Amino acid sequence: MPLSNEGEGKMPEFIFAYHGGKAPDTPEEGEKAMAAWGAWYEEMGPNLVNPGNPVGMSKTVSTSGIADDGGANPLSGFTVVRADDMDAACKMAQGCPMVADGSGSVEVAPIMEM
């Protein structure tokens, strides 16, 4: 399947799914964290499609019901970006503040056009 916008002269889009991270302990830590995220978003410039948001605790829905397990690897937030290819998107993800401080990871996936 083609990547989003492929063939239209536009760069494909990728979702960054965040896992981990931690809530700041003090207002000062919160300001520092927001500044780090803001700087990273600014670095991505026009390739930032949707800065996304943090997310709350998830539930897993399956044929066996609804579980309050938070998932096997709980999602903590998301962002949507444009990049030339998967390698370029992964390189962008390496700049994520959660990756830089070791508190979390970024799952990178192409958004498929249907």
UniProtKB/TrEMBL annotation:
**Superkingdom of source:** Bacteria
The YCII-related domain extends over 72-114
Pfam families named among the record's database cross-references: YCII
The record's annotation in InterPro entries points to: Dimeric_a/b-barrel (IPR011008), YCII (IPR005545)
SUPFAM superfamilies hit by this protein: Dimeric alpha+beta barrel
Residues covered by region (Disordered): 51-73
Q: Which Gene3D superfamilies match?
A: Dimeric alpha+beta barrel
Instruction: Give the record's family classification.
Output: Belongs to the YciI family.
Write down what this protein is called.
Uncharacterized conserved protein
Per the UniProt record, the source organism is Sulfitobacter delicatus
